[in-house]
C-alpha cells in the first residue's frame, strides 16, 4: 500500500501568544516561535505507519515550505516514513489553500509518475495555524480521488492490499461510518491516535532515506494557479483584539473616592447590604 | 579549529528525546521524588526510543552512537528528574562495564535485553568500608571447582533493588606485594544468596533506588566471571571514571538548566513594585551567574565525552567536568531558591528538589576531593616545565 502523507511545518501552538500580526502586511510575525510538525499531520503519519505495518508498501511525505522545511521532513523520516519530498520555490510563496492544494497535487502526480501511484493520501484534518480544513478535500477533488475529512478511526482488515477502507468520521453527537474506495484522500483529526516517539535508530536512518526537492521548474505548473496569483483568498481586515481591561482613575480625598465608588457601584445596579457600619 | 556545535543528527536526537521526556517523565518527576519511587515500568519505553542502548553497537541491540549522545540523554532526563537520570545512567554504567570487560558470549547474552529495557542493571563496587578506598574492598570471590563462591556487602548501590543483572567487584587474590586483586562478576536476580538489602532514604536523587546489595555464599558458574581473573579493578574504575563521572556531570548540567529555565519563568511572572523582578539588576545577576555556570559545565562535560568518542584518554577531563559541574549545580540551585524568595523552598516549585538533587550528587561517581586528587595528579605530571 503506497501512502502519501501531506505534512506542514507550523509555529508551535503552545507559543501562540508570542505571535503578532503586522497591521500593514496582514502577515503573521512568528519570529522566535519554534516550528513543529502540525500536530494532526503527525497523527496522519502515525496512521500511515500503522497501515504500512499491516499491508507493507511505502510512505512518502510531502511538504510545501521554505527550504528550512527540510528539518521537519527529517523529523518525520525519523518517525519511520520512507521518502520525503520538499516542494519549495519562491514562486509558491503567498499561496492560499487552493494554490497550496494545487501545488501539492502537482508534486504527488510527479512522484507517482516517477515511481508507483498512491493508494492513499493522508493528511491532518487542518493545520494548527490556518485551521481551514480545506486541503484534504481540495487535494481529493483535484486528484479525482474519493475523499473524507474529520476521520477519527481507520479500520484495516484482511490480508493483502485492500480495495477500500472502513473509516469513522467525527460528527457533533457521534460518528459516521464509511467505506471508502481507494485511491482516496483522508483527513484525520488528533483523536485518531497518539503518534509514536521518534527513536534514536529512526534518527540515524533518516539521513539515508531518499529526499527530493521539487521547485517550480520541476513541477511545471500552470503559473496562474500557484503562489499569490493562484490564490483567490485575500485577507480582509485583520487585527489583534484588545484584551486589556477598561480602566479609569479616581482622584480626591479617600472619603471622596469612596463616595464616588459607592455611587458607581449603585449605578450599575449592585445593592450594598451591609451588616452595619456602612453609611448610606 | 575547534567546533562547539552539535551535528544536525544530534540536534534531532535531542529534540526527539525531549519530546519523549516532556511527555513521559516531566509530569511525574515531582511525584517520584515525593514517593521515592523508581519508575521501572519506563524501561521498555526508554529502550524502544533507544535511550538505554544509545552507545551500544547495533549488533548488540543498541543505536550504535557515542558518548556525546549518551550524555545528552542524561542531561535531558536530569532537566526534569535527576533521580531517574541517575538510575538510567547506572544502567549505562553497568552496560559500559560489560562492553569493556565481558566476553563476546556474555555480551550477546546480556546486552540485547538491557538495550531494549526488558532488563535493568547496576554496578556495585562501593562498600561500607569506604567508597574512596576502592582497592580496600572486603567482598571476596573464592574458587570453587570451576566456579566461584562470593561473599560480601555493597552499599549505596543504585538500582540495587530493581536490577535483574548486577556487576560486582570482589577481591579474588593478592599480588606479590600483598595488594588486592579484584575481579568482576555478573549476578542475576535469581542467584541464590544474592539480593538487595536495605533501601536508603536519600535527601535527593529520589526516584532512584539506592541501598545495599548482599552476597551470601553465592555460587556462580565460571561463565559469570567477567573478564580475566584479577583484572576487574580496571574495568570497574574505567566505567566509573568515564561513564559514571560523565553522567554525574550531565545530571549537574540538567539541574543547572532546570534552575535557569525555572528562574527565568518566575522572574518574568513575579511582579514587585509594579514590574517583573526580571527587571531588577540583582535578579539578573543571579540569572547571569547560572548561565555562566551552565555553559562552562556543558563545555567541560561534552568535551570530555567527545574525547572518549575519539578513543582518547579522558579520565582527567571527566574528573574536571564532574567536580566542577556538580559544585555549580549546588550553587545554581541555591541561586534559584534565593531568586524565588519564599516560593523557592516550597515544593510546588521544583527548585528545592533541584537543590536536594545537586547536594546528593556530590559523592556519587567519587567525591569532589577524589576528583581533585585525579586532576592534581595529572596536572603535576603534565605541567612540569
Ligand atoms: C546517590 C548515590 C548513588 C550511588 N550509586 C552507587 C552505585 O551505583 N554503585 C556504587 O558502587 N557506588 C555508588 N555510590 C557510592 C559512591 O560511589 C560513594 O559514595 C563514593 O565513592 C564515596 O564513598 P563513601 O560514601 O564511602 O565516602 P568515603 O570514601 O568514606 O569518603 C568520606 C570523605 O573522605 C574524603 N576522602 C576519602 N578519601 C580521601 C582522600 N584520599 N583524600 C581526600 N579526601 C578523601 C571523601 O572525599 C569524603 O569527603 C552512590 C552514592 C550515592 C550518594
From TrEMBL, chain A:
The organism's place on the tree of life at top rank: Bacteria
- Keywords, in A-Z order: Electron transport, Transport
The Electron transfer flavoprotein alpha/beta-subunit N-terminal domain, residue ranges: 25-223
Gene Ontology MF terms: electron transfer activity
UniProt xrefs under InterPro entries: ETF_a/b_N, ETF_b, ETF_beta_N, Rossmann-like_a/b/a_fold
Q: Does the record's keyword annotation contain Nucleus?
A: no
Question: Where do the TM regions start and end?
Answer: none
This protein is called what?
Answer: Electron transfer flavoprotein subunit beta/FixA family protein
Which species does the entry assign this protein to? Answer: Candidatus Thalassospirochaeta sargassi
From TrEMBL, chain B:
Write down the superkingdom of origin: Bacteria
Q: Does the keyword Ribonucleoprotein apply?
A: no
* Acyl-CoA oxidase/dehydrogenase middle domain: residues covered: 123-218
Keywords recorded for this protein, A-Z:
FAD, Flavoprotein, Oxidoreductase
Which segments constitute the Acyl-CoA dehydrogenase/oxidase N-terminal domain? 7-117
Gene Ontology molecular function: any one? flavin adenine dinucleotide binding
Q: Which residues form the Acyl-CoA dehydrogenase/oxidase C-terminal domain?
A: 230-376
A Pfam match is Acyl-CoA_dh_M
* Keyword check for Oxidoreductase: yes
The record's listing under InterPro entries reads: Acyl-CoA_DH_CS, Acyl-CoA_Oxase/DH_mid-dom, Acyl-CoA_Oxase/DH_mid-dom_sf, AcylCo_DH-like_C, AcylCo_DH/oxidase_C, AcylCoA_DH/ox_N, AcylCoA_DH/ox_N_sf, AcylCoA_DH/oxidase_NM_dom_sf
Name the cofactor(s) required for activity, per the record. FAD
Q: Which family does it belong to?
A: Belongs to the acyl-CoA dehydrogenase family.
Annotated protein name in UniProt? Acyl-CoA dehydrogenase family protein
Amino acid at each position: 500500500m503506497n501512502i502519501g502523507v501531506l505534512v506542514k511545518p507550523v509555529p508551535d501552538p503552545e507559543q501562540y501568544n508570542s505571535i503578532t500580526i503586522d497591521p500593514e502586511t496582514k502577515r503573521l510575525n512568528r519570529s522566535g516561535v519554534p516550528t513543529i510538525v502540525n500536530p494532526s499531520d503527525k497523527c496522519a503519519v502515525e496512521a500511515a505507519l500503522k497501515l504500512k505495518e499491516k499491508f507493507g508498501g511505502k510512505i512518502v511525505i510531502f511538504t510545501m515550505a521554505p527550504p528550512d522545511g527540510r528539518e521537519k521532513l527529517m523529523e518525520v523520516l525519523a518517525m519511520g516514513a520512507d521518502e520525503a519530498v520538499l516542494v519549495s520555490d519562491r514562486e509558491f510563496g503567498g499561496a492560499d489553500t487552493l494554490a497550496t492544494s494545487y501545488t501539492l497535487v502537482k508534486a504527488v502526480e510527479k512522484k507517482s509518475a516517477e515511481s508507483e501511484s498512491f493508494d492513499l493520501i493522508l493528511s491532518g484534518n487542518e493545520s494548527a495555524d490556518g485551521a481551514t480544513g480545506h486541503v484534504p478535500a481540495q487535494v481529493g477533488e483535484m486528484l479525482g480521488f474519493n475523499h473524507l475529512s474529520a476521520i477519527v478511526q481507520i479500520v484495516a482488515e484482511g490480508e493483502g492490499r485492500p480495495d477500500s477502507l472502513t473509516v469513522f468520521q467525527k460528527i457533533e453527537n457521534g460518528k459516521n461510518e464509511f467505506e471508502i474506495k481507494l485511491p482516496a484522500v483522508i483527513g484525520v483529526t488528533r483523536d485518531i491516535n497518539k503518534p509514536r516517539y521518534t527513536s534514536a535508530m529512526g534518527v540515524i536512518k533518516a539521513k539515508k532515506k531518499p529526499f527530493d526537492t521539487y521547485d517550480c521548474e520541476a513541477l511545471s505548473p500552470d503559473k496562474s494557479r500557484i503562489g499569490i496569483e493562484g490564490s483567490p483568498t485575500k485577507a480582509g481586515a485583520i487585527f489583534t483584539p484588545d484584551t486589556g481591561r477598561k480602566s479609569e482613575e479616581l482622584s480626591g480625598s479617600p472619603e471622596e473616592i469612596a463616595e464616588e465608588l459607592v455611587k458607581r457601584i449603585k449605578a450599575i445596579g449592585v445593592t450594598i447590604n451591609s451588616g452595619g457600619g456602612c453609611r448610606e | 579549529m575547534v567546533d562547539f556545535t552539535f551535528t544536525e543528527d544530534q540536534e534531532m536526537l535531542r529534540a526527539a528525546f525531549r519530546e519523549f521526556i516532556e511527555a513521559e517523565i516531566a509530569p511525574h518527576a515531582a511525584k517520584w521524588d515525593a514517593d521515592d519511587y523508581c519508575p521501572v515500568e519506563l524501561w521498555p519505553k526508554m529502550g524502544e526510543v533507544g535511550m538505554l542502548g544509545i552507545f551500544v553497537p547495533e549488533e548488540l541491540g543498541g543505536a550504535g552512537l557515542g558518548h556525546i549522545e549518551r550524555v545528552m540523554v542524561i542531561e535531558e532526563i536530569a532537566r526534569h528528574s535527576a533521580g531517574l537520570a541517575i538510575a538510567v545512567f547506572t544502567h549505562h554504567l553497568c552496560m559500559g562495564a560489560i562492553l569493556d570487560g565481558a566476553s563476546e558470549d556474555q555480551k550477546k547474552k546480556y546486552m540485547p535485553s538491557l538495550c531494549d529495557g526488558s532488563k535493568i542493571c547496576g554496578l556495585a563496587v562501593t562498600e561500607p568500608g569506604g567508597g574512596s578506598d576502592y582497592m580496600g574492598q572486603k567482598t571476596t570471590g573464592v574458587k570453587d571447582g570451576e566456579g566461584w563462591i562470593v561473599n560480601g556487602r555493597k552499599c549505596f548501590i543504585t538500582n540495587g533493588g530493581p536490577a535483574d543483572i548486577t556487576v560486582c567487584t570482589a577481591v579474588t587474590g593478592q599480588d606479590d606485594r600483598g595488594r588486592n586483586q579484584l575481579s568482576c562478576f555478573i549476578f542475576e536476580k535469581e542467584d541464590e544468596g544474592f539480593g538487595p538489602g536495605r533501601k536508603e532514604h536519600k535527601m535527593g536523587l529520589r526516584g532512584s533506588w539506592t541501598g545495599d546489595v548482599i552476597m551470601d555464599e553465592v555460587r556462580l558458574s565460571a561463565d559469570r566471571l567477567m573478564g580475566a581473573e584479577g583484572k576487574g579493578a580496571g574495568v570497574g574504575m574505567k566505567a566509573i571514571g568515564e561513564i559514571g563521572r560523565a553522567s554525574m556531570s550531565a545530571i549537574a548540567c540538567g539541574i543547572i538548566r532546570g534552575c535557569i529555565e525555572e528562574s527565568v519563568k518566575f522572574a518574568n511572572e513575579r511582579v514587585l513594585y509594579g514590574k517583573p523582578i526580571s527587571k531588577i539588576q540583582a535578579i539578573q545577576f543571579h540569572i547571569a551567574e547560572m548561565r555562566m555556570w551552565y555553559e562552562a559545565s556543558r563545555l567541560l562535560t561534552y568535551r570530555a565525552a567527545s574525547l572518549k568518542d575519539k578513543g582518547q584518554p579522558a579520565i582527567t577531563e571527566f574528573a574536571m567536568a564532574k567536580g566542577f559541574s556538580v559544585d555549580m549545580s549546588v550553587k545554581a540551585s541555591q541561586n534559584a531558591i534565593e531568586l524565588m524568595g519564599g516560593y523557592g523552598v516550597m515544593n510546588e516549585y521544583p527548585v528545592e528538589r533541584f537543590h536536594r538533587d545537586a547536594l546528593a550528587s556530590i559523592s556519587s561517581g567519587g567525591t569532589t576531593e577524589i576528583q581533585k586528587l585525579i586532576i592534581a595528579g595529572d596536572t603535576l605530571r603534565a605541567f612540569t616545565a
